[in-house]
Amino acid sequence: MNSKQRPAVIAVTVGLPGAGKSSLCQRIENYARVSGHKDRVVLISFDDEEQSLSSECNNKETLTDFDTDIWHKARERALEKAKQALAATNDPIDESSKSIQVLLVDDNMYYQSMRVPFRQLAERVGAGYLEIAVDCELEEAMRRNALRESPHRVPADVLRRMAGRLEPPTPGRRSLHVKSDDDLETLFCAMRAASAEPEVNHEASRAAEAAASRASVNASATHQRELQLRRIVGEFIKKVPATSRRGAAALAAQVKSEIAVSDTFDVEAMAALLQRRYQEYLSFNPEL
């Protein structure tokens, strides 16, 4: 049986609190589990990470009040869990299988900078990347948010500010706009399409391009050096009497090979070296 690594996609949600992101993520997770799907879904929730950290700190105030330190730690933990999930579940599968691995990240991600670490992760591991914008009118999001119990309820003024600052995904193959109750099969089709077009590791690509550029420059420099060596030898041979040219040619070839492997190269120095070696050659062969 031929096997290969399961194609993977990192899908991050984008949207206001109350837009239905968590509900959509739970629907996706349940759908993959109970519908006979072979696709594997791993859900990472930023809210769950924050609540877990708050409980670990035994700080009841952080369950209702925003804590910047916990917020940052939760994001770091979520990213680390994403890395571990991709490493742990990307197991070989039957090559005839069309299943994919979905790493689903549940958060508002209202700034594009919040999504960058996950796109970079997709680049590093060769996974697809998809931003799922969960669209919802502000008033509806505020109505749903007001029904939440603390600590999940976001202050109304904060939610309004988030709505004004939300940076939607850039239109293109990496983004999809949905409603929280949209058809899931359409969403899975989009995630499969994203997994089939994995992100390019730009860091590795830049390193490869730099290496290729250096090799090209070195090759060009070597070629130019070879041309200069040939020109010097040619000019030297022309000045030598016909009776001495065979010996002079052998001498020039030897000097050329010595210069070719040296770290430094100087046109005048080589010409002087050739002339000096030729005079030595003549002193040992006075008949020439």
UniProtKB/TrEMBL annotation:
Q: What is this protein called?
A: L-seryl-tRNASec kinase
Annotated membrane-spanning segments are none
Molecular function per GO: kinase activity; tRNA binding
| UniProt xrefs under InterPro entries | P-loop_NTPase, Ser-tRNA(Sec)_kinase
Q: Which domain of life is it from?
A: Eukaryota
Keywords, in A-Z order: Kinase, Transferase
Does the record bear Kinase in its keywords?
yes
Query: Which SUPFAM superfamilies does the protein's record reference?
Result: P-loop containing nucleoside triphosphate hydrolases
Origin species, per record, is Hondaea fermentalgiana
Decide whether keyword Cytoplasm is in the record: no
